[in-house]
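This part of the workshop introduces the protein records we will be handling. A learned vocabulary of local backbone shapes supplies the integers on the structure line. Getting from the letters to the tokens is the skill we practise here. As an example, a complete record with its sequence and its structure tokens follows.
=====
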Amino acid sequence: MAAAATSLLGILPSLLPSRTPSLLRRTGFSTNISRQSRRFFSIPEPSPVAVHAQAKRTFSLKEEEAATRDDLYFESPLKIVEYPDPKLRRKNKRIITFDDNLKKLADEMFDIMYKTDGIGLSAPQVGINVQLMVFNSAGERGEGEEIVLVNPRLNKYSKKIVPFDEGCLSFPRIYADVKRPESVKIDARDVNGTRFSVSLSGLSARVFQHEYDHLEGILFVDRMTDEVLSSIHEQLQALEKKYEEKTGLPSPERVEVRKTRKAAAGFGKS
């Protein structure tokens, strides 16, 4: 399965602008879908997929607050933020400084991603509320392609919706069905600040959407139907109790009173 995932990422260079040939070496995506979860994913053969619907953002670029150096400050080693920590729901700031600190943060995110058996990770999942994600669908250091995406924008997504048994590093050992568009078209910057656009399908599109949701303050449980959510009800309660015992604070979220969140308009509705 890892080999299949790697071969899928192999289509990305042909989709990227010729002026960014080194993009995939350290510049790209993230997803919290774990390696265990990935084994259940059936990757389609790479093929052109029509992208139809126009995605809508919940706020305009002018309304986005730029991240300061303090916002990008971090201490090693990074730690995964688990549900229901409020950091996972906060607004994530736009990155405007592309320096060695940003590159180091991306490197550290890859480190903890590999250590926790993930294939992707977003900055808010390590307590840093900025628009940054990292990704390697192979899930192994030295295999596949390491990608970083900064300030990603979802432009379009396909009408075709596909299910997948997703997992998330912020929801340890929890896996459940989530339906998402099969393909997407995005704009982003790499870790050096260079702009680029790319179309993604299959696993890479799934990974991007999962991580993009994190940057919008949306969690994969928000994409689940009530029936699917009920199947992991007790596991979510256990995480809520764990949070209360660890912090001494009441859980900011409770699955018992969960109301279906309104996700980004028209995008990946459950």
